[in-house]
Amino acid sequence: MDPTYWHRQKATEPLFEKLIWSKPENRRLAGKLLIIGGNAHGVAAPAMAYQAAVAAGIGTARVLLPDAVAKTIGKSFPEGEFAFSTPSGSFSKTAVNQVLEHRDWADAILLVGDFGHNSETAIFLEQLAEKYRGLLVVTQDALDYFVKDIGKLTDQENVVVVSELGRLQKLTRAGMPSLIIQHSMSLHALAGLLNSWTRETPAKILTYHNENFVYADGGQVSTTPKAAASNWEVPLAAYAATWWLQHEGRSFEAVTTAIYELVTT
User: Which residues contact 208 (CB under 8 A, 6 or more apart)?
Assistant: First the structure.
């Protein structure tokens, strides 16, 4: 018998069906999402996130890119806006002020990846995590900047971490060594570990293990079966952000339903 905190969602049956019927139909009421990512050598992640957010039913999405790509992107991506970049084409530490100018507009921010590795970008992301208190979803290499102190994300009520298990293992090994995540552990063992972690801290964790998406929040854990998932982090992070901002205050139900919606599309 599964523990009471573990909720198994079927690929053909959502755990929270009523949430699907309560989804906003009017775009003006469907929320505003700011997607941040990219560097001079790649903008695939923010572009994919934008497409996924639209598919998930976001009302309006903006994509903030480093201005090093402004000439190459140009008018081909009208949703794109640009912030200060470093000489190497990553986000500059001064870009945080430009992001914070959007905070009154955005219902949520998605740090989607393709940031590269740059010391100024590290300052940019750290300051953003400290100063922004709206809903925040973080995935891919944005997480790498918090490897020495993942608590800067998981100790906040407003953050969902979307990570494949290997990166999550690396983050906890460096920043929370008491949490031992292993690829060899059973789904039951992972559910128990995430139950303890999210019951004792505000952490909200979405990962994938043993052909299941696993989401933990407030001591509750949901699992949703999906075989051979690949390249899932960006689209699922966009779905999670969209559903969460549309059902603020119901993060466990919202993100679990976002998983169902993406799995069944």
Answer: 164, 165, 214, 226, 229, 232
Residue type, 139: T
Asked whether residue 1 is domain-assigned, the answer is no
Q: What is the CATH number of the domain that holds 97?
A: 3.40.1190.20
Q: Tell me what pLDDT residue 159 has.
A: 96
- Give me the domain span that covers residue 127: 6-264
Average pLDDT, the chain: 92
Count of C-beta atoms within a 10 Å radius of residue 264: 12
190 class by beta-carbon count within 10 Å (0-12 exposed, 13-18 middle, 19+ buried): buried
Going by DSSP bridges, is the β-strand pair 159-162/220-225 parallel, antiparallel, or unpaired? unpaired
Stated pTM of the model: 0.95
- Degrees to nearest 5, angle at CA 51 with 49 and 54: 105
CA distances from 246 to 8, 23, 33 (A): 23, 7, 10
Question: What is residue 10's three-state secondary structure?
Answer: strand
Local structure of 42: helix, strand or coil: strand
